[in-house]
Amino acid sequence: MIQNRLAVFGGGLFAFFLAAGALLLYLFGTDTYTVDGRVAGIQNEGRTLVVEHEKIPGYMPPMIMPLPVADSSMTAPLEKGDAVQFRLAVGDSASIIALRTLPDTAVARNPARTTTPIKSAADGGAQMLQQGDRVPAVLTLTNQAGESLQIGDYRGQTLVLTFIYTRCPLPTYCPLMSKQFAALQPQLRERYGEEAQLLSISFDPAYDTPQVLREYASKYTDRLDTWTFATGDSSQVERATGLFGVHAQKTGSEEITHNLTTALIGPEGHVRRLWRGNDWTPEDVRQAVAQVAEAS
């Protein structure tokens, strides 16, 4: 009996150290943060937890966002509105590696809703574009060289645009959008040359000056003939974000919470596809561009 207990104990101890070792290997080269928040939803059969979390000091502001979990069993007992504390590991991606529930009084009812919205053109009556709508040709921005550009300048070309800000700290948000564009650009160049263009629009014009955008661009591409980085004055940026349904909230001098929108605009200036969020791939966009090219 004693030997059996020792065997069970030894096996359990081995499993513990095995799991701990795997965790240490996983965490090597990553940053980790302990975060309090509330469950806002559960997606992908428990593999993704949508959390409304408090500010993560030194990393990011309060936000409502989907995060993958290390094991779907972690979300099984959870319900929307539950107060939770989780361990967020951030490296090339971000994911929840540990999670526990908290007393309801331990977390604010809406921990991410203490931010100040950035004025959006949608708030001023501009209608958000839908698939098939024509993008206003006079929508004006400023590129990384400090030169004025209009969306109408892309007439006759296929345009894929997305929204970023250069100080975005979350790997699965703006940095991922830029990495996806970096992977997409050579594919489009090889097939379509300058007839397919990429455009990254910053909604942080106060910080993302043309010089900052040039420096940011150099991290992802050395070919600015088919990939433009743009910003503009506040009214221009507000109009662009409003038209494409990008909602941003400024929570500090450097922190902006936001959603993600990527759009495909055909040579005639109509919205052909809209991707909301970050679950599209370069291949998805490449195929959509090919369909537009074949129909043109």
Quick structural summary:
26% of the residues lie in helices and 29% in strands.
What does it look like?
This protein has 296 residues and is an alpha+beta fold. It folds into 2 domains: 30-113, Copper binding periplasmic protein CusF (OB fold (Dihydrolipoamide Acetyltransferase, E2P), Beta Barrel), CATH 2.40.50.320; 116-295, 3-Layer(aba) Sandwich (Glutaredoxin). It contains 5 helices and 15 strands. The chain has helices spanning 2-27, 174-192, 210-217, 234-243, 282-295, and strands at residues 31-43, 48-53, 63-68, 83-90, 94-101, 116-117, 140-143, 148-150, 158-164, 196-202, 227-231, 248-250, 256-258, 261-265, 271-276. Strands 8-7-11-10-9-14-15 form a 7-stranded mixed sheet. Strand 1 and strand 2 (48-53) form a beta hairpin. The chain starts with a helix and ends with a helix. The relative contact order is 0.14.
Provide key terms for this protein:
OB fold (Dihydrolipoamide Acetyltransferase, E2P), membrane, Thioredoxin_domain, alpha+beta, disordered N terminus, 5 helices, 2 domains, globular, Glutaredoxin, CusF_sf, transmembrane
Identify the strand order in the major beta sheet.
8-7-11-10-9-14-15
Helix residue percentage: 25-40%
- The CATH topology assignment of the largest domain is Glutaredoxin
CATH domain class name of the largest domain: Alpha Beta
Supply the number of helical segments: 5
Number of E strands: 15
Count of all domains: 2
Taken in chain order, the helices and strands follow as HEEEEEEEEEHEHEHEEEEH
Biggest sheet character: 7 strands, mixed
Query: Outline, from the CA principal axes?
Result: globular
Kindly report how far apart the N and C termini lie: 78 Å
Residue ranges: pLDDT <50 for 5 or more in a row? 1-22, 114-125
Which value, in Å, is the CA radius of gyration? 22 Å
Strand content: 25-35%
Q: What structural class do helix, strand and pairing data support?
A: alpha+beta
Estimate the mean pLDDT confidence: 84
- Tell me the name of the CATH homologous superfamily of the largest domain: Glutaredoxin
Which CATH architecture of the largest domain is right?
3-Layer(aba) Sandwich
Pfam families: CusF_Ec, SCO1-SenC
GO molecular function: metal ion binding
Protein name: Protein sco1
Keywords: Copper, Disulfide bond, Membrane, Metal-binding, Transmembrane, Transmembrane helix
